[in-house]
């Protein structure tokens, strides 16, 4: 569902920037030494992809101790990824489409009574960089909403506006990646930034016929935008599934990070937990400050109706709770299995990387998907696990790319 920040997800960011605030580590300064100013030491340049980060062989797949139910869910999600996996280029530099054909061919007919043996037979493990992983979570929210406006359902769910476009070459400076920025052309024909969240809240899009639904609660709708997809459940029990369709071009700002900077998160008096639930509690208990805080995230997500049996990830296949995850495609081939061993037991096991996210960047950065419902909401909202990650790649990958194999 991994603006597009790259894929649906700001999610998408899934507890993403809400939860990446939990990922920040304090720096210990020796006694008697003054703090080093943040800019006194140059930051290390970002590593471009998995090959440049360095890869090495991990343990045999048979040594991972795959659980049958875990392997079965991963096998089913892997099957769904295969049509994309065998056709798309891999920006990690690790694999080619043809590398996946033997495993995908076998997966189509593999007996589901023996899912572990599928992974034992067709894969080898690879450690990217030092393998140290940060794992967060996201889920598919279900909130009160209707297709048509009704009393008590006044929060618009917008489709992509037709005037949201990319600048023509020469009308605006390109983005750092070379793409043209998103925005709109005003009445004079000048390219300008698109309406931000505050302007949209104030009615910039009202009356233009862009509403595909109406939600009951603005706070729930704000957090559904962060997840990037979700369900609107009407009073009569009917459900409308919506998914990411576009974004207004403004940079995403995690309100959890802002709250931490302002001393609002923590365990002290008057502070709130850094989980999604804690951040939502602050917004509800402080309605005026909460409204202002939400406006500081100028990014705004537009939706479309989904008709399949699950929210779609970056591979354009459904993501499955407890089997699908988001990763950075520069370090993980989308569609590849990922093995996690972290300090949150519920996140351990085998996942299939089928999505991306705005805050899911760098090697071994994983955002686990937990499906829908109250349990998924609780787990995803509080997920912040640290440990190790391994990629499962087709047998022979390490030998082909010339990496020295040797279990670690």
From TrEMBL:
EC number: 4.2.2.n1
Gene Ontology molecular-function annotations: hydrolase activity, hydrolyzing O-glycosyl compounds; peptidoglycan lytic transglycosylase activity
Keyword Membrane among UniProt keywords: no
Signal peptide: 1-23
Keywords, in A-Z order: Cell wall biogenesis/degradation, Lyase, Signal
Biological processes per GO annotation: cell wall organization; peptidoglycan catabolic process; peptidoglycan turnover
Catalytic activity: Exolytic cleavage of the (1->4)-beta-glycosidic linkage between N-acetylmuramic acid (MurNAc) and N-acetylglucosamine (GlcNAc) residues in peptidoglycan, from either the reducing or the non-reducing ends of the peptidoglycan chains, with concomitant formation of a 1,6-anhydrobond in the MurNAc residue
CDD domains found in the cross-reference section: mlta_B, mltA_like_LT_A
Keyword Amino-acid biosynthesis: no
Residue span(s) of domain Lytic transglycosylase MltA: 142-304
Pfam families registered for this protein in UniProt: 3D, MltA
Enzyme class name: lyase
Parts of the chain that traverse the membrane: none
GO cellular component assignments: outer membrane
Protein name per UniProt: peptidoglycan lytic exotransglycosylase
Source organism (scientific name): Novosphingobium arvoryzae
Lineage: Bacteria, Pseudomonadati, Pseudomonadota, Alphaproteobacteria, Sphingomonadales
